[in-house]
């Protein structure tokens, strides 16, 4: 389950550059890891395919707000319920039509999210004491969770990835455009990658990919919004959870519970990585009347849904889930179609939130 706006460059950068992110709450630039191509002369806008860290004018932001207000009349409740009830059907149809031809592999992830790179799984210090050799020695877990983790570590392969030293799970994996770059780039034998999607069609496409290796990866169908559904791993066993243009597909009423459920899966020191749509992104401004489900929540022509976040909304949900902020940045980027002389303003949000590591003095009480 991933956003189908990828045809206009939603997921990642163009072939020439990739995002530079800034903290809109402080105005400070953060980690100019990708591009440093800034538009200083508007007359040069069509010289390149994309421009980084674009600053909006007050008039431009006011115009975006007016556009959203014009098209914010929600559909009747019965229509909203229909889209909610048929969400699985719409995503299966999407992947049946597009299969694996729609998105490009997200190689930019290793720059923006070094937690996915080989050094992260090999360098214990960089993992911020995410795990030790005994997974039961984690003070943030209650007794029942510690028992589950201890059992998981001694299943002798009955559960996929039970012997792994570093575990990544992508939720909303689509056809594997994050998973397969990770597996190709990171050859650490201690790494295991879990990936799931709401769409059974997408999961079958992942499993049928020649690069799928069941010794290093486990793909499964899962509904993120169903907080009662079981994951293939117990709580407190994941180092990294990846959410790339997927959280926005949930109904807003189900977002908080879903994040809280994912947070329980993390080891102390584990991190959730998110990249998703920001408020007033071009995709939001393009929606016409009759597509609004609720405030900042829309349905596309193919029946799939999308929400557009603010940094504060995401921060509140992550902190309510008991996670600490590492990063919460907004990426305002100008993409250009030089052939058609069209400019496209994109707004994405990128977050990293970490589960606290237990204090040393708490650990002697653990068995």
TrEMBL record:
Task: List the subcellular locations.
Answer: Cytoplasm
Sequence ranges assigned to domain Methyltransferase type in this UniProt record: 169-272
Q: Which keywords annotate this record? A: Cytoplasm, Methyltransferase, S-adenosyl-L-methionine, Transferase, tRNA processing
Chemical reaction(s) catalysed: cytidine(32) in tRNA(Thr) + S-adenosyl-L-methionine = N(3)-methylcytidine(32) in tRNA(Thr) + S-adenosyl-L-homocysteine + H(+); cytidine(32) in tRNA(Arg)(CCU) + S-adenosyl-L-methionine = N(3)-methylcytidine(32) in tRNA(Arg)(CCU) + S-adenosyl-L-homocysteine + H(+)
Q: Which Pfam families match?
A: Methyltransf_12
Which GO terms of the molecular function aspect are on file?
A: tRNA (cytidine-3-)-methyltransferase activity
Q: Which SUPFAM superfamilies match?
A: S-adenosyl-L-methionine-dependent methyltransferases
User: What Enzyme Commission number does this protein have?
Assistant: 2.1.1.-
Q: Provide one Gene Ontology biological process annotation.
A: tRNA processing
List, alphabetically, the GO terms of the cellular component aspect.
cytoplasm
- The record's region (Disordered) falls at 1-34
Q: Which family does it belong to?
A: Belongs to the methyltransferase superfamily. METL family.
Q: Which PANTHER family match?
A: METHYLTRANSFERASE-RELATED, TRNA N(3)-METHYLCYTIDINE METHYLTRANSFERASE METTL2A-RELATED
Please explain the role this protein plays, according to its UniProt record: S-adenosyl-L-methionine-dependent methyltransferase.
Query: Under what name is this protein listed?
Result: tRNA N(3)-cytidine methyltransferase
């Amino acid at each position: 389950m991933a956003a189908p706006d990828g045809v206009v460059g939603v997921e990642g950068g163009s072939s020439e550059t990739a995002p530079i992110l800034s903290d809109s709450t402080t105005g400070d630039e953060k980690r100019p890891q990708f591009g440093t191509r800034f538009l200083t002369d508007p007359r040069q806008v069509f010289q390149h395919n994309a421009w980084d860290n674009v600053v909006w004018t007050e008039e431009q932001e006011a115009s975006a707000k007016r556009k959203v207000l014009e098209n914010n009349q929600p559909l009747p409740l019965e229509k909203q319920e229909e889209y909610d009830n048929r969400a699985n059907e719409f995503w299966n149809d999407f992947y049946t039509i597009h299969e694996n031809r729609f998105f490009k592999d997200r190689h930019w992830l290793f720059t923006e999210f070094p937690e996915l790179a080989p050094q992260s799984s090999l360098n214990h210090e960089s993992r911020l004491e995410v795990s030790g050799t005994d997974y039961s020695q984690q003070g943030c877990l209650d007794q029942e969770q510690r028992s589950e983790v201890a059992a998981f570590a001694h299943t002798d392969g009955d559960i996929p990835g039970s012997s792994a030293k570093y575990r990544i799970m992508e939720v909303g994996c689509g056809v594997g455009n994050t998973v397969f770059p990770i597996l190709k780039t990171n050859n650490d034998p201690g790494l295991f990658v879990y990936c799931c999607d709401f769409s059974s069609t997408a999961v079958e496409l992942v499993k049928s990919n020649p690069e799928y290796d069941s010794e290093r990866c486990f793909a499964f169908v899962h509904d993120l919004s169903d907080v009662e559904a079981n994951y293939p791993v117990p709580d407190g066993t994941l180092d990294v959870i990846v959410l790339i243009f997927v959280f926005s597909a949930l109904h807003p009423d189900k977002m908080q519970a879903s994040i809280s459920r994912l947070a329980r899966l993390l080891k102390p020191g584990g991190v959730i990585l998110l990249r998703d749509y920001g408020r007033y992104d071009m995709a939001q401004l393009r929606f016409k009347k009759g597509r609004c489900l609720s405030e900042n929540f829309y349905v596309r022509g193919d029946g799939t849904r999308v929400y557009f976040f603010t940094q504060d909304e995401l921060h509140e949900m992550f902190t309510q889930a008991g996670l600490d902020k590492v990063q919460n940045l907004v990426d305002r980027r100008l993409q250009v179609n030089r052939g058609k002389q069209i400019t496209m303003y994109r707004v994405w949000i990128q977050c990293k939130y970490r589960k606290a590591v237990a204090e040393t003095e708490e650990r002697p009480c653990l068995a």
